[in-house]
Records
---
Amino acid sequence: MAIVYNEKKQTFSLHTARTTYQLKIGNLNYVNHLYYGATIRDEDLSYLIRRYDRGFSGNPYDSLQERTFSLDAQPQEFTTQQQGDFRINSIEVQNSDGSFSFDGRYLSHRIYNGPFTLDGLPTPFATEQDTVQTLELTIGDAITKIRVTLLYSVFEESDIIVRAARVHNSSSHRVDLKRIMSVNMDFMNGSNMDLISLPGRYGQERQVERQPLTHHVHKIRSGRGISSHQQNPFVALVDSTANEEFGSCYGFALMYSGSFLAEAELDQYDQARLVMGINDRLFSFPVEPGETFDTPAVLMTYTHKGLARMSHNFHHFFRRNLNRSKFVRDVRRPVLINTWEAAFFDFDDEKLVNIAKAAKDMGVEMIVMDDGWFGKRDDDNSGLGDWYVNEKKIKCGLTELVRQINGLGMKFGIWFEPEMVSEDSDLFRAHPDWAMEIPGRHAVRSRNQLVLDMTRREVHEYLIEHINRILDSANIYYVKWDLNRAITDLWSNALPADRQGEVSHRYVLGLYRVLDGIVKTHPDIMFEGCAGGGGRFDPAMLTYFVQYWSSDNTKPLDNLKLHYGSSFLYPVCTMGAHVSEASPMVPFETKAAIAMCGTFGYELDATKLKKKEIRACKKMSDLYHKYYDLNFFGDYYRLANPFEQVNLVAWECVSKDKSEALVTVITVNLTVNGPQEYIKCKGLEPDKYYRVEGGTGSLTASGMALMHAGLPIPREIPEYTAFIYHLVEI
Ligand code: GLA
């Protein structure tokens, strides 16, 4: 049983295969968090809570004269408000009388099989191989009649617990939610913990930062209306000594594509608290009597086996429980060529056919027509919103163009940027009020485009109808769904003045609604997400998109860092990675080896390549297919950290049965007459013997030797050489 309720002790133990999470209905019916860590039995761990009279930490009135009971020191499942807990909080609600108080005590619970779902927000699903149980535990305020149901779905085999919160207004007045987090996680001992996050910027997404948790509030957030290039909705709290192989690691990933917030704090007693959810900045969401409000879900995992295992737990889950598309597992994704860096806006049907013809010899299986095919779009100043084919460029029409491409034995993909509108477009001229703009002000322009008001039904309907019309007009195999600016000017003409605090969240709900109407109605199309590269690469997006364009930066060496950082949360099969003309000093083979640590493709003008380069590409496209299963479904290990001063960067994918592995090594800095370098493999079966092909020859060694003594890497070779070692059990 994944969830065990002990009625006598009033404890709930949530068991995954290797972890236990425990909570308890404690004193005065406050719900205590007792434990999250390696598996324990269903014993009551409330002995861990020690009570003292702590100065300046108040006591709830009904604790009577008991000075040792303070919510300021109690580990809790969700916080109260104005009840003496001064730490970061998970709820802030303004009641109809203007007060800000919420005193949530246990009311009821229920346990059922299967995962919870949320209103208008994506959640993970259970497959036939999963055992999933859900606990819904409701706390409520006896005076204000506001209730919060804490939702926990336990995915037993995957060591993943999914959490969210649902607010019910059972009063007869409207209340305003000013802040509502998806998760509150208390740690009774938070000293010696590090916080890991994935900050970045445009062109340099998901770098890795690790810092000690100290006595202040650490804030990781996006306020850009999208999950953003600058931060990713992921944090880990780990032992300060944790490394790839050892140490306690707690990982948290928010399934949300808008402005988000994660806060972590080490309190005055060295207890830690982490909260994560929708960003409360510019957020104020009214909940009317009888209504509910759902927060997005958070995926949580724990392991004491280090960072690699934490990542594997997420990778495994992402591959199995987020996206039902056949392109996740059953249908192999084709090698693609994207026209963006080859032609930008300057193309027509003939040019596309020529690129496709040339690319065919590179082993390319699909051409993607990027930005510029619709409306009046010769540069990025016009045309967005006009989702009809520009017949000056695609003279033969889309259906015929796709037919010609298919005739070459290639598939066809197309680009959209649905959420945006250019002022110079027919759509804007017809519906200027569909663009978000604050009354009396001019909207902020970015890439010279405005943002459609995604809170409005008529906008949803316009997008669903026009985009589906294009998708149904030709044999389209793939869609790249882009977004190229952050969201500003939070205002909707469709909402009254006192409900403008909903806009940011309603934008995201609207986006999911449109995605449902387009992606879910086209199960045979493969969808890739993009936001100026990886600006909205998040777990919620991966419920719609099987892969996400990692970055507009295709420089291979920058991609080493980007892939390394992304791999903390995202599996290889989700990371879009292309070989391009960038960094001419790096050989094609090396670029391809790096792009193979992702969903492989090209972003260049195939008609301009030399015969030799075409042949090199063909070889690399064949390798992508040869190692597809290993890369896409194997366990990924980070072997050398590109953020450190290293001479080599390396990673490895090991098949689930450990019979095969692929080790990729890139030389980034080789000194003349330097020391012999070794790379230690990971995840192999110690007692098995492996034949290793690659480098400058072949050898045979045991898993033990390869993991503990390592693989010697050839010396005196030029920098930016790639070695791909294929290990096969003998
Ligand atoms: C964004 C994407 C690019 C390309 C352009 C087109 O920047 O990340 O890959 O599609 O838009 O305008």
---
Amino acid sequence: MEPVVQCVDLWKIYHTGKVEVPALRGVNMEVREGEFVAIMGPSGCGKSTLLYVLGGLTPPSSGRVLVDGNDLGEMSDGERTLLRRRKIGFVFQRFNLLPTLTAYGNIAIAQHIQGDGFDPHRFELTVELLGLKERLHHRPGELSGGEQQRVAIARAVVTDPKLVLADEPTGNLDSQNSEAVLAMLKELNSELGQTLILITHNPEVAAHADRILHMRDGCTLDSAAHSAPPQHTHELIIPE
Ligand code: ADP
């Protein structure tokens, strides 16, 4: 089976004025369909950057990154946006729900943005799995943090994406709600075969995944030692 995600010697260098910050320094990794992978590492090691690159939010500087066989480095911004809408679901630490829409609206809008129209079967399945049936007509401000994150997860999976990327999804929740949200992510993975990548600095959160990839200094530790950086013309700032 083809991997859903494949990174080969992936670099991402931020250019801020005259300095260059290499946030990713030769990441090699693969995630297969149906896997639940946690990427764990200390603050500043490049986890968010990796998630942004995998999600097509920012292009790689060099190396290869394939998502469902699509080479993100070869795509225009517009092509990456389309790929993101069609194939990727995001879950953020701060939920990022639209405050004026109900839970129903926040979930349904994802299907409309994807472009295939409303799919009532998938909608009901998602709402059922996330235990949101009784909460659909509430706005985010009327929901607890745990419920808001469940709505956000429903929004991410209601489009039946190839890949869900979760950025510290329990970072804003108390321990009870964290456990519930992680249990639901696990259930989506086992019941729907949803491929999931979660980033976290917290080993207890990472332990819920099937596999943990450790990151340090812009590299996944399981990958080979740092390769030579691409050509630089500016001062290079290596993150701590
Ligand atoms: P993590 O998610 O593990 O905390 P990040 O990917 O946010 O790590 O950051 C990795 C490195 O890249 C850090 O040194 C950070 O300061 C730097 N960085 C992140 N985003 C930017 C940006 N937009 N411009 C410049 N440097 C950035």
